[in-house]
Amino acid sequence: MVSFNFGAGPAVLPGDILEQARAEAFNWQGSGMSLFEIPFGDPTFGAVMQTAHRALQQVLNLPDSHHLLFLQGGAYAHFAFVAMNLMGDKKRACYLDTGHWSKRAIAEASKYGEIVVDRIVADGAYCHMTTNETTQGRQFHELPDSQGLPLVADMTSDILTRPIDFSHMDLVYASAQKNIAPAGLSLVIMHEKLFDRALDITPTVFNYTLQARNNSRVNTPNLFGIYMAGLMAKWVTDQGGLPEMAKRSREKSAVLYETIDHSRFFHASVNGEMRSHVNVCFGLKDPALNELFLQQAQHEGLLNLNGHSAGAPLRASLYNALPRAGVVALADFIKRFDGQLAR
Ligand code: PLP
């Protein structure tokens, strides 16, 4: 049976990338060494990093002012590291609270300075947003006006799904496990104007300036994750780049929202402009039926549709590697489930 993985993360990766990794990674260029065994000091290590770096820089269309770092920790760790790296002497920053992950970011950053929520103050060190709230299915489709403050964004769940104008973004960070690579890698993209602001307590390996000046090699990076990120960047480019990814995300989410809006027994949990193109959150009007829906969906090969405990009961994540056919199959199943309840 064909199955589709709608999980929010770690999420589905394109099959051809997995195939390529299987063919290449266990005997890297015929060296007899796998990609997991290449020593840190070997020129090959740097070459793999450089290839991935170039592919990502290209697909993201990064300006020369913006440095791309390969770090560890995951976005939850970077909630703290962002504050440590950017708070500087101001010890004050502005955060937009749009849901679960921005609340977590605020809680971590509060340990390192005063956080002003949903307001911009002129003496703030930066303004932080979560471009896509994975848990609530809420997405910014336009960047907010940060009124001259450096704009900082957690793009964990929508990086590589749409073009971003980095001339309006000063720092972006993302965990890899939704649209980039397996978990264990974080991308940080930083404008060099933000260098040299880190608090003294910042751990050396999470000092973004230091990592930028050392090509992300202050300590041993996750080479396999970086390699996979490079394959993903190339895959996106080959598919038509970020405008094409954005078009597909828009179309896939439109099919689902339309189906849910026209159903009798389901409802979408977000209405209006902030509907996410990558995490469609929904539920049955009678909550007692969500479990039955999940069971039957799994039976149909529609996997991991359960929502986050802090969000809607059902969620379909439509990242780049989830094909349109999966969305069509889910929409068809929602219609059949609706019909079954109406009988
Ligand atoms: N930020 C967002 C928007 C997320 O969706 C997630 C995880 O789903 C995180 C942060 C946390 O990522 P991690 O668990 O990799 O630290």
UniProtKB/TrEMBL annotation:
<keyword id="KW-0664">Pyridoxine biosynthesis</keyword>
<dbReference type="InterPro" id="IPR015421">
    <property type="entry name" value="PyrdxlP-dep_Trfase_major"/>
</dbReference>
<comment type="similarity">
    <text>Belongs to the class-V pyridoxal-phosphate-dependent aminotransferase family. SerC subfamily.</text>
</comment>
<comment type="pathway">
    <text>Amino-acid biosynthesis; L-serine biosynthesis; L-serine from 3-phospho-D-glycerate: step 2/3.</text>
</comment>
<comment type="pathway">
    <text>Cofactor biosynthesis; pyridoxine 5'-phosphate biosynthesis; pyridoxine 5'-phosphate from D-erythrose 4-phosphate: step 3/5.</text>
</comment>
<keyword id="KW-0963">Cytoplasm</keyword>
<feature type="binding site">
    <location>
        <position position="101"/>
    </location>
    <ligand>
        <name>pyridoxal 5'-phosphate</name>
    </ligand>
</feature>
<feature type="binding site">
    <location>
        <position position="134"/>
    </location>
    <ligand>
        <name>pyridoxal 5'-phosphate</name>
    </ligand>
</feature>
<feature type="binding site">
    <location>
        <position position="154"/>
    </location>
    <ligand>
        <name>pyridoxal 5'-phosphate</name>
    </ligand>
</feature>
<dbReference type="Pfam" id="PF00266">
    <property type="entry name" value="Aminotran_5"/>
</dbReference>
<dbReference type="GO" id="GO:0030170">
    <property type="term" value="F:pyridoxal phosphate binding"/>
</dbReference>
<keyword id="KW-0663">Pyridoxal phosphate</keyword>
<protein>
    <recommendedName>
        <fullName>Phosphoserine aminotransferase</fullName>
        <ecNumber>2.6.1.52</ecNumber>
    </recommendedName>
</protein>
<dbReference type="GO" id="GO:0004648">
    <property type="term" value="F:O-phospho-L-serine:2-oxoglutarate aminotransferase activity"/>
</dbReference>
<dbReference type="InterPro" id="IPR015424">
    <property type="entry name" value="PyrdxlP-dep_Trfase"/>
</dbReference>
<keyword id="KW-0028">Amino-acid biosynthesis</keyword>
<feature type="modified residue" description="N6-(pyridoxal phosphate)lysine">
    <location>
        <position position="178"/>
    </location>
</feature>
<feature type="binding site">
    <location>
        <position position="177"/>
    </location>
    <ligand>
        <name>pyridoxal 5'-phosphate</name>
    </ligand>
</feature>
<feature type="binding site">
    <location>
        <begin position="219"/>
        <end position="220"/>
    </location>
    <ligand>
        <name>pyridoxal 5'-phosphate</name>
    </ligand>
</feature>
<keyword id="KW-0718">Serine biosynthesis</keyword>
<dbReference type="GO" id="GO:0005737">
    <property type="term" value="C:cytoplasm"/>
</dbReference>
<dbReference type="InterPro" id="IPR000192">
    <property type="entry name" value="Aminotrans_V_dom"/>
</dbReference>
<keyword id="KW-0032">Aminotransferase</keyword>
<dbReference type="InterPro" id="IPR015422">
    <property type="entry name" value="PyrdxlP-dep_Trfase_small"/>
</dbReference>
<dbReference type="GO" id="GO:0008615">
    <property type="term" value="P:pyridoxine biosynthetic process"/>
</dbReference>
<dbReference type="GO" id="GO:0006564">
    <property type="term" value="P:L-serine biosynthetic process"/>
</dbReference>
<comment type="subunit">
    <text>Homodimer.</text>
</comment>
<feature type="domain" description="Aminotransferase class V">
    <location>
        <begin position="4"/>
        <end position="326"/>
    </location>
</feature>
<dbReference type="InterPro" id="IPR022278">
    <property type="entry name" value="Pser_aminoTfrase"/>
</dbReference>
<keyword id="KW-0808">Transferase</keyword>
<comment type="function">
    <text>Catalyzes the reversible conversion of 3-phosphohydroxypyruvate to phosphoserine and of 3-hydroxy-2-oxo-4-phosphonooxybutanoate to phosphohydroxythreonine.</text>
</comment>
